[in-house]
Amino acid sequence: MKKVLVTGMTSSQSSSRANLRTLQFSGVLVDILEKAGYDVTHEPPSVEWDTAFLDEYDAVVAGVSPITSVSANYAYGGLSVIDVLKDSDKLIMFIDAPAPHQIFSSLRAISTVPDNIVKQFYSSRREYFEAKRPGVKNRLLSAVDYLLNDNWKTCLYPELPWNNHYKVCAQVQDNAAKALKPVNVDSYIVSDAAATAAVEKAIVKKHVWVASDVTSSWTKRVAATSKFPFTAAKDGYKSTDASLKTKLEGSSGAAISPHGRDGSWWTPMFAYAMNTITPVVTDWRDSGAIGDAWNYIASAVEDLDPFDRIDLSFSQKEQYADKIPDRSTVLQTLETHLQLQ
């Protein structure tokens, strides 16, 4: 049985527990590989992982995030893994968050002032004191130099059915853009059975929108022309996907904000909305590419009666499902990128 290690610089990239609470791209990758029979380890990285340790795995899937971000609690271990494997074909990287250009801004900031990689501000990070050791620190800075200046290894990112690959590539440096490989994982989340069960529950949907980001300028513009109030998808960092699904079940719509000029970014909230027969509005200039059901604006959804909103949600799910690869294709794509075939 082939072994795969999935890790990264943030909790969402490297923690199975975090993904049980709030599913992210890494959690879906782990689920796909485990369902296919691979022996998958999903855990935070360590600066102590050397070549001998990493050689136990057939593929190492390492998440990359802005290393100066407060969420990059495992940046030291993540950088160390990349440095150890930067010349190995078993290293596969991934990005899982919008605005990937911030990765390079943070790399340049550290490259300009190398000592800042272990400044006091980061003292609460995992393995901070180990990272201050000269040998380890040099290894971390070597990884920074690699990510900033060398051609990246294959780097996966989560794809929406209307994603423009070139738009994503434009958000990263050329040395990384050539390595980007889209992977659409939604066939493992979108569920006909869940949508049918939601209908059978017959939960009364209130006149309220569930918004992925109530603070975004897009949400504020949409809310200004809407009759229904908007509520946040998550109530703080302790919120779970279970609570989000409950909110969606009882709402008239999901408002999923694009990320400025960069457009939409993948989130499981699209699947959760469709699974709870909740119509979605997002930037129709992107989503409308897959079908007319994805062209709706919030006020138009509000003008529909409750049964027509359910019909709209089913139409959205059908058009969405028609544009995403099936599970076997997704697995084959992933196995090819990870060189597991």
Give an account of the 3D structure.
The protein is an alpha/beta fold and 341 residues long. It has two domains: 3-186 and 325-337, Rossmann fold (3-Layer(aba) Sandwich), CATH 3.40.50; 191-322, Rossmann fold, CATH 3.40.50. The protein is built from 18 helices and ten strands. It has helices at 11-14, 16-21, 25-35, 51-54, 75-85, 101-112, 128-131, 134-149, 165-169, 174-177, 192-201, 217-224, 241-249, 269-275, 284-287, 298-302, 306-322, 327-337, and strands spanning 3-7, 39-42, 59-63, 91-94, 155-158, 180-183, 209-211, 230-232, 253-255, 280-281. The protein has a six-stranded parallel beta sheet with strand order 2-1-3-4-5-6, sandwiched between helices. The longest helix has 17 residues, at 306-322.
Offer a quick outline of the entry.
By secondary structure, the protein is an alpha/beta fold.
Order of helices and strands: EHHHEHEHEHHHEHHEHEHEHEHEHHHH
Number of helices: 18
Helix/strand class: alpha/beta
Provide the gyration radius in Å: 21 Å
Strand order of the largest sheet: 2-1-3-4-5-6
| CATH topological fold name of the largest domain | Rossmann fold
Largest sheet: 6 strands, parallel
Helix content bin = 40-55%
Span between termini: 12 Å
CATH architecture identity of the largest domain: 3-Layer(aba) Sandwich
The global form is globular
Number of domains: 2
Output mean pLDDT. Answer: 95
Low-confidence stretches: none
Strand content: 5-15%
- Count of individual beta strands: 10
**According to CATH, what is the class of the largest domain?**
Alpha Beta
